[in-house]
Amino acid sequence: MDIIKKHLANLEKKEKKILNKKQGVIEGNLKPIVEKVESKVPEAVKKSLDKAFYKSFQVVFEKGTRYIEKLYNKNKIQVDHIVHDYVINRSLNSRSIKNIDKHAQKSKLMNTSISVLEGAGLGFLGMGIPDIPLLTAVILKSIYEISLSYGFHYETEEERVYILNLIKASLTRGEIQKKYNHRVDVIGDKIDEHINFNFDLDREIVNAAKILSDSMLTSKFIQGIPVVGIVGSITNYNIINKISRYSSIKYKKRYLNGKCR
Question: Residue 56 to residues 120, 142, 181, 258: CA-CA distances in angstroms?
Answer without folding.
Answer: 20, 15, 24, 32
